[in-house]
Amino acid sequence: xxxxxxxxxxxxxxxxxxxxxxRDGRNSDCRWPTEASNHSADxxxxxxxxxxxxxxxxxxxxxxxxxxxxxxxxxxxRDRCMAKLFEEVAKxxxxxxxxxxxSLGHNRAYIDVAEILPFALLYGLAAVAIAGMNWRRYxxxxxxxYAQGRAYRCRYRSDCIRCPV
Length: 165
Hints:
The chain is mainly alpha-helical. The protein is about 65% helix and about 0% strand.
């Protein structure tokens, strides 16, 4: 039953994460998708469009200049494509190219928290589990500083029944 539960949770996570990906207009041809934009030049939408343009530029450079060309040439083509896409976003939204460029990476705090929090929780749970396994396997030390400190504390307390005086 536990295996079935684990499988169900993993499937739910995979399906939930797949819903967060913008699929419309993905291409590797350095082409801004033709879409009927009903969004204003709101900072949130502008940031999302700038990130999508960056993603398209990276796809373009990876597809057309990825393996056989130098990384310098690949970077130049990526930047050229990104500039072209930023111009198209700016024209579509009615803002300047500098505004599009500066909006890249803004308004992402909630996304960053949503990405980092599960890993932090997983790390914390793993640390607690490993510490518990170590404690059960090795237990408290019977010699050394821990045992000496316990004996020292108990030696001067008359009500201590654990340590011989």
